[in-house]
Amino acid sequence: MMIGKHREAVVENIRIAAKEEDFYRKVEVDDPVLSAEQSKAITDRFLADRKKFSHRFKSFFVRKFANIGSSIVNRRLEIVGEELLPDLSGGAILTSNHFGPLENTLLRHLVRRHGKKRLNVVSQVTNFAMTGPIGWLMNYADTIPLSQDLRYLTKDFIAVLQELTEQKEVILIYPEQEMWFNYRKPRPLKRGAYHFAARLKAPIVSCFVEMRDTQEEENEQFYKVKYRLHILGTLYPDENLTVKACSEALCEQDYRLKKAAYERIYGKKLTYDFEKSDIAGWKA
Questions:
Q1: pLDDT in the model for residue 271
Q2: Nearest-angstrom CA–CA distance, 212 and 85
Q3: What is the rounded distance in angstroms from the CA atom of residue 61 to the CA atom of residue 274?
Q4: In angstroms, rounded to a whole number, what is the distance separating the alpha carbons of residues 169 and 243?
């Protein structure tokens, strides 16, 4: 399902950002824009509400809806390398490429196949200002807002992640940060996810989603896209290193895995010269 308007404008924003090597740039044209005060209000509300009965009640039903939807839309999903997935009974951090608002359904489907009731998804705080059904999912489908506020990041956010890992939960973090619509290439990774893994001594499960065009039209500009989920391996923090050195090593290892997966899957060397084929399903 195609979500969002102005896809051609978004593709142009991706082309410009790739040319300028600004791989963490926001490219969507209709995302909410929040002030620091508005962002803080969202994270404050999240922290205050997350253990209230009303929030848990809403999350229960939204989780059920998200899980059922994930099972239906991914019932024919091909998963490659599933034998590389570790036992998730102890919890883990998943990383994947970020190309669509509902691609987390692929990972939800995966962890439920392996006995987990939920997938906790770290999402940009701006997503929590969305309205309608997507906004409802963003706020209640086991999501955790990611804000640039340093106090929140270094105290409250890490405390939430620590609580979840101690409860042996699985957390999805997108180290590419911003969503680039249907962008096939793995982008250079930000270190945040790996810093949290090093701090919490949590394993990283590296994933990569392959996108293949179909001949079925989505609209006048795009064909529908078929997904294949690749499990690339599990990375474990080296406790003999400092948190900084450990996070840098994990980040580099994960990028190498995703780069190698891209080159193997698509049969071409990874460069960031923009090509039409970079955007899955695009008819241009």
A1: 97
A2: 23
A3: 42
A4: 21
